[in-house]
């Protein structure tokens, strides 16, 4: 389950970066989105710690397709 949450977090982060780069967000939206992503990242760290996992433990090997997660972290 944490793998799915981490995948969604990474997808949201990439989407946010794309919108930052395109300039489609107001300054207030950028601040709120940045804060939300930072809090989500911290929460993921807490959940991994609670379950005795590292972010790299959440990655799945998809064989010829490669790893599921872009950068599983430490």
UniProtKB/TrEMBL annotation:
It is found in: Gas vesicle. The keyword Acyltransferase does not apply. It comes from Streptomyces levis. It comes from the Bacteria. This is Gas vesicle protein K. Belongs to the gas vesicle GvpK family. The keyword Protein transport does not apply. It holds the Pfam family GvpK. Its main location: other. Keywords: Gas vesicle.
